[in-house]
Design a protein that fits this description.
single chain; 20% strand; 6 strands; six-stranded mixed sheet; Leucine Aminopeptidase, subunit E, domain 1; 169 residues
Length: 169
């Protein structure tokens, strides 16, 4: 069974086998978590992302999917990039957000990662409501069939931490 822990802080400062990046579909960096991971991880991450774009992901990474690269200078072996859905308002389909967590854990299993650090995917500029995103994230990780031993949700602020804490119990 996977242990779930919560940390309030900066995901780029976490030590884990794999750090999950809330990426944009281009895989070439962006704002928020994506930009922070690319900046702190250094040019090796971007170089691998460019190779992925030149080979298997010419049109970018699809929403809900995940792919791994080196972690560069982060305290991790890998970065797992996943593209969260943009919240379109009430009635938005939560299955793509859940897929981000499932697919990231699937990739982690393929890599042999035992510890994974996740941000609150899609809750920044993609505007997914924090309370719903926290429920989806925690339920999906709890229900996942994975060899990952520990998942740490690294939450940027107190509001996010409290939303996730409600569901972790």
């Amino acid at each position: 069974m996977t242990t779930i822990t919560l940390v309030q802080g900066d995901i780029t400062r976490q030590s884990a086998d794999a750090v999950v990046n809330a990426a944009n579909s281009s895989l070439l960096g962006g704002g928020g978590v994506d930009g922070a991971i690319h900046r702190r991880g250094g040019p090796a991450i971007l170089a691998e992302c460019r190779r992925l774009r030149a080979s298997r992901y010419g049109k970018g990474l699809a929403t809900g999917r995940a792919v791994a690269t080196t972690a560069g200078e982060l305290d991790a072996r890998w970065v797992i990039h996943t593209v969260g859905p943009v919240w379109q308002g009430p009635g938005s389909d939560p299955s793509l957000l859940a897929s981000c967590y499932r697919e990231s854990l699937r990739v982690a299993d393929e890599l042999g990662a035992r510890t994974v650090a996740f941000p609150a995917i899609s809750t920044g500029v993609f505007r997914w409501p924090m309370e719903e995103a926290a429920r989806i994230a925690v339920e999906t990780v709890r229900d996942a069939e994975t060899a990952v031993e520990e998942v740490t949700f690294v939450l940027f602020d107190e509001r996010a931490y409290e939303a996730f804490a409600e569901h972790v119990g």
